[in-house]
Description:
The chain is of the alpha+beta class. It has helices at residues 2-30, 36-52, 57-77, 81-99, 101-104, 112-139; strands spanning 205-207, 210-215, 219-224, 230-234, 254-257, 268-273, 278-283, 298-300, 313-314, 320-322, 325-328, 331-332, 345-349, 355-359, 388-390, 395-397, 415-422, 428-434.
Amino acid sequence: MIARIFHWIFIVFLILVGLLLxxxxxxxxxxxxxxxxxxxxxxxxxxxLFTIRRSPKAVYIxxxxxxxxxxxxxxxxxxxxxxxxxxxxxxxxxxxxFLMPWFLGSETKDTHTQHASRKLWIGGPIVASxxxxxxxxxxxxxxxxxxxxxxxxxxxxxxxxxxxxxxxxSRFAAIDQIxxxxxxxxxxxxxxxxxxxxxxxxxxxSIDERLYLCAAANVLISLDAETGEEVWRxxxxxxxxxxxxxxxxxxxxxxxxxxxxxxxxxxxRIVSATVDASLIAVNADTGELCSDFxxxxxxxxxxxxxxxLRKEYYVTSPPTVAGxxxxxxxxxxxxxxLGLPSGVVRAFNALTGELAWAWDxxxxxxxxxxxxxxxxxxxxxxxxxxMSYDPELDLVYAPTGNANxxxxxxxxxxxxxxxxxxxxxxxxxxxxxPA
Length: 435
C-alpha cells in the first residue's frame, strides 16, 4: 500500500516537472532561446505516462533524457563546476529513484537480464554526470587580473576622505601601526549608536580627527574620532519613498573642501544624496545647511525627470567628488514597467549646486537640462551604486544597471515611451512611439 502511494506521488511529481518545463520552454523558443527545456519537459511527461502504464519505456526515455542532458550541460557550461551542478544534480536525483527496487518492481514482470539492462540505461548517464562534475571540480578557475600593476599609494595619510578612501576607490589605508604582529592586540575603545532604528549601511569618512557618516533616511552625523562623542547631527526629516529597506538606505556621505578664495559660510562641507531625491550640503564643522548651495542647502534631483512616483526614483549612494563637481546617479525602480524615470548621470557644482553637466544615454548630445516640456530619456540604464574618479585623466567611472524593463529586454529600445498622464491606479499611462 505504501509503495503504491509513493508510486503515484512520483507520477504527480513527474507531471508537475514536465509542465513546468514544457510551458515556459515553449515561450523560451518563441523568444529565440534554447529548445532543451521544451524537449526535456515533453520527455518527462512521456515518462509519467509510461510510469502510469507500468511500462519499462519510462526507464529508457529517462535514461536517454539524462544522457542528452549531460551533453547539453557540457555544451553550455564546459567544465565549469558551479554551472554544471544545477544542470545535472536535479536530474541525477530523479534518476536514482528510477533505480530503486520498489520502482523496478512496479513494472511488468521481466527477467533479471532485462532489469540489469534498465539499471545500466539509467546508471550509465548518472555515472557520466558524476564524472563530469568531478572533472569540473578539479579544474579550478583562472584568477585574471587587469594587467595593471601599481604600487600602494602611501600619500593617502590617515584620513579616509572618499567612500573608497581615494577618489578612485583604492580602499587602501596607508597605516603601519596595525599589522600582522599587532592586530591581535586591538581592543575596543568606544562604541556609538546612531539611535536610528533602521539598518546602518554607511561607510564613514575620517577627516581631521572627525568621522562623518549617515544613518537611515540620510540623518547626517559627525563624531570625534578619538572619543566617539557626537559633535553634531543633522536630520533632514525625510519621508522615505517606500517601505522596503532600500528606500531608506544611506550608504555614505561625501566631503568637499572649497578653494582658498572661497568666501562663503561652508569652506568644508558634507554632502549627501538622499532617498527623497535631493542633494543636501551641510557645514562640516557645525552641521548647518550651506545657504549658498542650491536653495538654502538643497538641490532637487527630480528636475528634468518628468512626472513619476516617488518610489520610482531616489538615491542611496554618496555623490562622487570630481574636482569641484558632485556627480550623482540614481536608483530607478526594478520592475517590468515601461516609461520609468531616466537613469541620467549628472554633475552639480559643489559650491553653488548648479547643474554642471548631464549624461543622458538616450540623448548624449544634450549636456544640460532637457528642453522645455521634455525630459531626460525614460528607462535608460541607471547608476545606483558607487562611482569613482581619476583626477589625472579627469574621468568618472560609472557602473550601470539594466535599462527597464529589468528582466525581459525585448522591449527596451524598440520604441520611445512617453508618460502622458496618470490614471486612477497611479501608474503612468504609456504611449508607444516607434523609434
